[in-house]
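Model it.
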Amino acid sequence: MLSVDLNCDLGESYGIFKIGNDSEVLKHITSANIACGYHAGDHNVMMETVKMAKAHGVRIGAHPGFADLHGFGRREMKISAEEIYNLIIYQIGALSAIAKACGTRVVHVKPHGALYNIASKDKEIADAVATAVADVDPSLTLFGLAGSSLVKAGKERGLLVAEEVFADRTYQQDGSLTSRTQSNAMIHDPDLAISRVIRMIREGKVESVDGTDIEMKADTICIHGDEPQALHFAVKLKAALRAEGIQVGRGWDEK
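Modeled.
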């Protein structure tokens, strides 16, 4: 039976600012990527999100990003591979400590926003991210854009890798995500997004913005927790997958 993981970026509230509907979204996903305080989140939100994820039996992942609260981690920052290595370790460590205090553990890592996009294309940055993950804990799974440099770097480091696809984003011909600065970056029609996801799972293909098909391996599907319709879409997507006979669970193989 075909199987796929549903992941969502969560824990992105901080201080008095509330983002998303984490408590409800967690009922419908299988992996939570929890912000680690740099692009979003804080110690209180991290603790609360870990506890909720544990209660719902959802896998806990670190979601490290650039130190950019004002830009929500979506602005590209020109920093060295060495510094990226350090910031990844720092953020995994913070969430891992909270998870341990809650009697659970971090099982995967997914870079956030601009850091994710850079690591998808830049081999040096991808190597820094993958090396940091492996040095912290080689049993961690690394989430990366399907077919990207980050996926390749993770495999080279001997990590278990989950190739990720996006339900609500469009793709360029080279397999990269369309920049959020472009008007066609997001897919707002849930039915169209769901049909594209099902095709990616069943056929391993998706139509790029120029109309050509590109290869796309789908181990895990991302739902953006900060989007207003995240909960509605998660429920609808999960139901559609089950109707297609696609199991919602884990989409990649164990070592």
